[in-house]
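Section 5.1 Outputs to date
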Amino acid sequence: MSKKREALDDQLKERIVKALEDLEYGSIHIVVHDSQVVQIERTEKYRLPAEKLENKNVSVRASK
């Protein structure tokens, strides 16, 4: 394998690792065209904690 190819592979690995860093919920899509990686997409989702139904009912009653 040539040094240029090794450098590209190392750079690709670094970019994939960077895309994965701090990702709690989501996905990484790696797009390949003609046996070459041409795009890395990162989709991140933020999950909000569910509000307890009891607390919601109490606050609705209090505001009436």
